[in-house]
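pinging the channel bc i need a second pair of eyes. not urgent but kinda urgent?? the chain im working w is below, pasted from the shared doc
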Amino acid sequence: MFERLARQLQSARRILLSTHECPDGDGIGSLLALLAILADDERAVRAATVGALPRSFRFLPGAEQVADWTRLDPAARRALLEQTDLVLIVDTHSPAMIGSLGDALRASGLPVTYLDHHPLQPGAPEGVYCEPEASSTGELAWCLARELTAELDAAMATCLYAAIAYDTNSFKYLRGRSATHQAAADLVAHGADTDAIYRHLFASNSRGKMRFVGEVLQRGAYAANGRIAWVRIPADLVEECGVSRDDLRDAITMLLEVEGVEVAASFLAVGDGSCRVSLRSMGRYPVNCVAAELGGGGHVLAAGAHLPLPIARVIPLVMERLTAMLGAPPEGPDCATAS
């Protein structure tokens, strides 16, 4: 798989790299590493994301080279696409997840390829390089990097390690996958700045986040004899605390880590009257099937959905499905290796 993608990238002379809307650590780290690896005297490589890079990832080498597609004027957008032969999207294989850039790519007719570790969706486009067993797209980018270059430098290694560390929540989500630890060890050997990654990604919590986490834990409720932890989050709490999507992720993970909990769910009321649902599993029950029933998707252990219904209707709808799922035998001691 990686040999074929490497040849495709090496034959292109003008490459555009991007990732999904609201870019996260896995997509950003993978993108920045490939930006450095692919760029040379004979190849022009550019990167643009749909939305600005979150502050916590701007320490990564090369972050200043990434353009925010949403802030480019029409002329700059046209010029960027006209100067591109091949597009590589990382950490998603859904054109809908690329927002306005996806619309522009469809209109341009440019060849687009994808590198992703999310489960392959029905009707996926052509040109998808996908391995759902991998811990992260960063792990796949590390495999690709070994095909593209003889040697990683410290900056490349730092970006790839950050991608893996982010999507595994500092390796907490791994379920017996030795390949991920092998990749991490190799990146450390090549100079990955693990201290900086730890400080920026896991030890730079704002006061707003700490207040938010406290509120979530205080509001947390339990069902199914304590096997389900869930919380209703009002939109104004998110606004008051100024929290990010990553802060939301960390809060629901704390609920999941309560003793006896098998599945955790958060329900976020959105200003337009809809509801965002996030689901997490400790390992024995897959939550992506529940998310899919609700029109969403994701990983076996981490999934979600956005429902055009008020939160008061969504909560019983989801809780009924989760309770029914826990009433069946578990799929195994660990139903997945990636989250």
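so The chain is about 40% helix and 15% strand. and The domain at 2-202 is CATH 3.90.1640.10 (inorganic pyrophosphatase (n-terminal core)). — does that match what u expected or am i reading it wrong
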